[in-house]
């Protein structure tokens, strides 16, 4: 083989090898990014479940307090009577 053909073969081989290595690392990076997305989604779902459980607990407590106590709307009682503080 001539020197030019050897250099061409070497150049194309290096280019092909570097392309394969680049694609391999690119795929690994994309796979890690996708996995981070799954982890982030799982964390968001966990937080949503926690918030929903807290909301349900607060709603149950409110219902329990309303059963135990007499709740009056103080804003509606003094609203047009003129008997509020300072009058």
From TrEMBL:
Q: Name one GO biological process term.
A: mitochondrial respiratory chain complex IV assembly
- Which family does the entry's similarity section mention? Belongs to the PET117 family.
**What does UniProt give as the signal peptide span?**
1-25
Gene Ontology cellular component?
Answer: mitochondrion
Q: Does the keyword Transit peptide apply?
A: yes
Which stretches does UniProt call biased (Basic and acidic residues)? 49-75
Q: What is the annotated localization of this protein?
A: Mitochondrion
InterPro entries with a match to the protein in the record:
Pet117 (IPR031568)
| Tagged with keyword Signal | yes
Keywords on record: Mitochondrion, Signal, Transit peptide
Chain positions covered by the region annotation Disordered: 49-87
What is the name attached to this protein's record?
Answer: Cytochrome c oxidase assembly protein
Pfam (any one): PET117
């Amino acid at each position: 083989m001539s020197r030019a053909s050897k250099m061409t073969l070497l150049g194309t081989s290096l280019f092909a090898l570097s392309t394969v290595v680049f694609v391999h690392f690119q795929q690994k990076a994309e796979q890690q990014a996708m996995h981070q997305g799954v982890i982030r989604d799982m964390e968001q779902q966990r937080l949503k479940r926690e918030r929903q459980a807290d909301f349900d607990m607060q709603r149950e407590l409110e219902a329990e307090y309303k059963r135990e106590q007499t709740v009056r709307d103080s804003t509606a009682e003094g609203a047009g009577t003129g008997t509020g503080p300072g009058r």
